[in-house]
């Protein structure tokens, strides 16, 4: 068998992208080069646009504002100085962090749990949650609970946290 007739199979895995190339050496070599020149730059560029959350950074930024006791998220600041939306978003952020850190079983809170935490009537709680869902800060789960979105975390960190800190004198 000559070099040109030899068959080869190459499997490439890069992140979530996987491709298998089979054929003669020259065709596989060309296909692999095309793969790297076409897909990898696009993949790297798209990664720059994907919003990611750095858990350690997030914990540091919200230390002193949210905390955990008795396997429950708590606000460590006076709710009276926060808007209803800020309060709800902070509780949902606490649920997110608690779940990621292994302190809570879920990052989802029910409307009833949030109503108790907010200390307002069901109508106000539902209205505020609806506003947060509309703003894509929070999403409603299939089971009727609520969780903070990645976009919501980024917004909370970039836009809301400076205002919250200023109001609280932190």
In DSSP terms (H or I, runs of 4 or more residues), the helix count works out at 6
The average pLDDT is 87
Task: Give the C-level CATH assignment of the largest domain.
Answer: Mainly Alpha
**Gap between N and C termini, in Å?**
75 Å
CATH architecture of the largest domain: Orthogonal Bundle
For the largest beta sheet, what order do the strands appear in spatially?
1-2
**Overall strand count:** 6
**CATH fourth-tier homologous superfamily of the largest domain:** Winged helix-like DNA-binding domain superfamily/Winged helix DNA-binding domain
Helix percentage: 40-55%
What is the alpha-carbon Rg in Å? 24 Å
Q: Which spans of ≥5 residues are poorly predicted at pLDDT below 50?
A: none
Query: What form results from the Cα inertia axes?
Result: elongated
> Do you know the CATH topology of the largest domain?
Arc Repressor Mutant, subunit A
How many domains, as an integer? 2
Would you tell me the structural class of the helices and strands? Answer: alpha+beta
Q: Into which percentage range does the β-strand content fall?
A: 15-25%
Give the SSE order as H and E letters.
EEHHEEHHHEEH
User: What is the makeup of the main sheet?
Assistant: 2 strands, antiparallel
């Amino acid at each position: 068998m000559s070099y040109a007739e030899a068959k080869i199979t190459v499997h490439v895995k890069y992140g979530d992208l996987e491709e298998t190339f089979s054929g003669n050496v020259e065709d596989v070599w060309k296909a692999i080069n095309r793969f790297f020149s076409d897909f990898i730059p696009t993949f790297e560029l798209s990664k720059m646009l994907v919003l990611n959350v750095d858990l350690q950074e997030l914990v540091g930024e919200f230390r002193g504002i949210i905390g955990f006791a008795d396997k429950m998220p708590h606000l460590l600041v006076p709710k009276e100085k926060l808007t209803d939306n800020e309060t709800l978003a902070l509780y949902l952020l606490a649920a997110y962090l608690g779940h990621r850190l292994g302190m809570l079983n879920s990052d989802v809170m029910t409307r009833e749990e949030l109503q108790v935490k907010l200390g307002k009537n069901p109508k106000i709680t539902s209205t505020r949650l609806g506003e947060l869902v509309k703003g894509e800060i929070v999403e409603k789960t299939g089971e009727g609970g609520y969780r903070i979105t990645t976009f919501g975390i980024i917004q909370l960190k970039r836009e809301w946290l400076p205002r919250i800190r200023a109001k609280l004198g932190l």
